UniProtKB/TrEMBL annotation:
It comes from Streptomyces violaceoruber. This is Nucleotidyltransferase. The lineage of its organism: Bacteria, Bacillati, Actinomycetota, Actinomycetes, Kitasatosporales. GO terms for molecular function: transferase activity. InterPro entries: NT_sf. The keyword Transferase applies. SUPFAM superfamilies: Nucleotidyltransferase (SSF81301). Keywords: Transferase.
Length: 268
């Protein structure tokens, strides 16, 4: 993998690996593997993956969360979601080194569908690290930092803005505003990065680097994107920051994204 996250052939390299997990987080990963295996047998679970800072090797004890994805043979049921929430609680309460656990549930048919080829498929192939079961990445193509990939991963920002504004209006506590600022900040940085990704010709999931790369092409918005990256790492409850995200940076970014890459293909 080169400095821009690419393989020698120009395709995007998988960003995580089991041997990149920091030693201090190894017990957390082992516990996750055990909990998933105990609650999801082979008739339900096709494969499990981790993603985020832990498999990338950049996790910070006490601050980083554990992100997991379970690919199920069938589409998720309420029973599946209940078991996933139980795993989240057990792992979060048992390991002080992580600041929460999040589990995504998807059916294999959805992840492997043509509609998800450049979204969920890309996520599995390049951003997820195998934890249990056969690796779905072996059934997926090699991805390049193209406009198509940009559009299908982040071309729906405009749809998220009204939902976030509604959450902001209803937020009654600093904790709620902090959670929202983290979510919005991270999404804005990801979208800003993929806006310029084909021109930069590379891939990164690092928030700071993503904001810096974006700023090279849009210097007039560089400071706002740096603030978004900071909120993605250290959330803020400042209503002025959320207002800037939702009323200025977000709408501008959604419009520019549509102009450059188009909008994401609709989902069923």
């Amino acid at each position: 993998m080169n400095a821009r996250g690419l393989n020698p052939d120009g395709t995007i390299a998988r960003e995580g690996a089991p041997d990149r997990v920091p030693e201090s987080f190894a017990p957390v990963v082992d516990a996750a593997r055990a909990e998933i295996g105990a609650r999801f047998d082979a008739t339900r679970l096709h494969s499990a993956y981790m993603y985020g800072s832990i498999p990338r090797g950049t996790a910070v004890p006490g601050l980083s969360d554990l992100d997991l994805l379970l690919a199920l043979h069938a589409e998720p049921t309420e029973a599946d979601r209940t078991d996933a929430r139980t795993i989240e609680r057990v792992l979060d309460r048992s390991h002080e080194r992580i600041d929460g656990v999040g589990i995504l549930l998807h059916g294999v048919a959805t992840l492997m569908s043509e509609a998800e080829r450049y979204d969920g498929g890309f996520f599995i192939a390049c951003l997820c690290t195998p934890l249990l079961g056969p690796d779905l990445a072996e059934r997926l193509p090699r991805y390049r930092p193209t406009s198509l990939l940009a559009r299908e991963t982040n071309g729906d920002l405009a749809l998220a803005l009204p939902r976030w504004r509604s959450r902001a209006a209803g937020a009654a506590t600093d904790a709620e505003r902090e959670t929202l600022s983290r979510t919005v900040g991270r999404r804005l940085v990801r979208t800003g990065f993929t806006l310029v990704m084909p021109r930069w010709e590379g891939w990164t999931s690092d928030l700071g680097e993503s904001a810096e790369v974006f700023g090279r092409y849009y210097p007039e918005c560089a400071e706002q994107m740096r603030i978004a990256a900071a909120a993605g790492r250290t959330p803020t409850a400042d209503p002025a920051v959320l207002g800037m995200f939702l009323d200025r940076l977000g709408p501008w970014l959604a419009a520019e994204y549509t102009a450059v890459h188009g909008t994401k293909a609709p989902r069923p």
